[in-house]
Amino acid sequence: EDLLLSREVMNRTWILRKYLSDMTPVEAMEFRKNR
Questions:
Q1: pTM of the complete model
Q2: Cα-Cα-Cα-Cα dihedral sign, residues 19, 12, 29, 33
Q3: I need a surface site. Which of 2, 13, 14, 19 has the fewest CB within 10 A?
Q4: H helices within the chain, ranges in order?
Q5: b/e string for 1-35 if b means 16 or more Cβ within 10 A?
């Protein structure tokens, strides 16, 4: 994964994963659906 994606994309992915990890699965799906 680190070799396939740019540093910027990796940083954004990490932030998104960190944000979603604090949510329940339903909240995370609703968040993704609305984005």
A1: 0.60
A2: positive
A3: 2
A4: 7-21, 25-34
A5: eeeeeeeeeeeeeeeeeeeeeeeeeeeeeeeeeee
- Alpha-carbon distance of 5 to 13, in angstroms, equals 10
Q: What share of the chain is helix, strand, coil (3-state, %, to 5)?
A: 70, 0, 30
Tokens of 4: 């396939």
Tokens of 28: 């995370």
- Reading the chain (35 residues) residue by residue, the pLDDT tens digits are 678 889 999 999 999 999 999 999 999 999 889 87
